[in-house]
Write a structure and sequence with these properties.
The protein is of the alpha/beta class. The protein folds into two domains: 158 residues, 3-Layer(aba) Sandwich (Rossmann fold), CATH 3.40.50; 81 residues, SIR2/SIRT2 'Small Domain'. It is built from ten helices and nine strands. It has a six-stranded parallel β-sheet, with helices on both faces. It is globular. The protein starts with a helix and ends with a helix. The structure holds adenosine-5-diphosphoribose (APR).
């Protein structure tokens, strides 16, 4: 009997060690750092028009307006710090074999909190890319907050922010889907789930995976039936989930 118990225990430990958790984050993840969300009241899309600053047509029509909009976002991101929620996610790397963060956010707060596997679905505002053909060929780090119209890629095209605009393809989509398809736990945090194709990814988790959504306005969202809802902000909700998980782990 002891032997069986031992074998079960080692099997359980192996299983835990092999566990993969995917965090799918949106603008609400960075709200507690002081970064505006897009669609809450007072959010960015109340102050700016998507058509004027976040589409390829906007860049064609008025590139310096687009550049200024993203320069302001970059400046703000450089001034803020990761929050408690980002830190809890980074801490999860101590408890799970694999923690993959798939974020819609263009800020680098997950990385600055210490997460080591972060995939940016909608790009990274601290990087630039060519506005000419082959724009996904190379990304260039931006020194400081300002990308200027005279900054050029080696082929002579102006550099644009490395962000995915409305109407553009999401190059990381397939890789993100693969990560979610073989996760054991999926935690969605701080996204209104209104922007596709990104939002569709949350349906790709295996049936048996634990699925959780953390959002202080969770009742306003279209949440699939197999998700557990935590109606809290990112910092509090993530800490609560991790402490419950750890309590369960100690009881085993
Ligand atoms: N903690 C967690 N969630 C929060 C918090 C908080 N403190 N505060 C607000 N939220 C939630 C809101 O309730 C909302 O559901 O964050 C969500 C933010 O939703 P959106 O503003 O729509 O942001 P997101 O879903 O990330 O937008 C997707 O839209 O404009 C594009 O490219 C942009 O990546 C972005 C995409």
């Amino acid at each position: 009997m002891k032997n069986l118990e031992f074998r079960l225990e080692s099997y359980f430990c192996m299983y835990l060690q092999g566990m993969k958790i995917v965090i799918f984050s949106g603008a609400g993840m960075s709200a507690e750092s002081g970064v505006s969300t897009f669609r809450d009241s007072g959010g960015l899309w109340e102050k700016y028009s998507i058509e004027e600053v976040a589409t390829p047509q906007a860049w064609k029509r008025n590139p310096s307006l687009v550049q200024t909009f993203y320069n302001e976002r970059r400046k703000q991101i450089l001034e803020v710090e990761p929050n408690a929620g980002h830190r809890v996610i980074a801490e999860m790397e101590d408890f799970f074999e694999q923690v993959v963060v798939i974020t819609q956010n263009i800020d680098d707060l997950h990385e600055r909190a210490g997460s080591t596997a972060v995939m940016h679905l909608h790009g990274n505002i601290r990087m630039a890319k060519s506005s000419g053909p082959n724009s996904e060929k190379a990304y260039y780090p931006i020194e400081g907050w300002e990308l200027k119209m005279e900054d050029r890629c080696p082929d002579g095209y102006p550099l644009r922010p490395h962000v995915v605009w409305f109407g553009e393809e999401v190059p990381m989509l397939e890789r993100a889907q693969e990560e979610i398809e073989n996760c054991d736990k999926l935690i969605v945090v701080g996204s209104s789930l209104q922007v596709y194709p990104a939002a569709g990814l949350i349906h790709c988790a295996p049936r048996e995976a634990e699925k959780v959504i953390i959002d202080p306005n969770v009742h306003e969202l279209m949440v699939p039936g197999d998700f557990i809802s935590i109606n809290k902000g990112a910092g509090e909700g993530l800490a609560l989930w991790l402490s419950k998980y750890r309590e369960g782990e100690n009881e085993e």
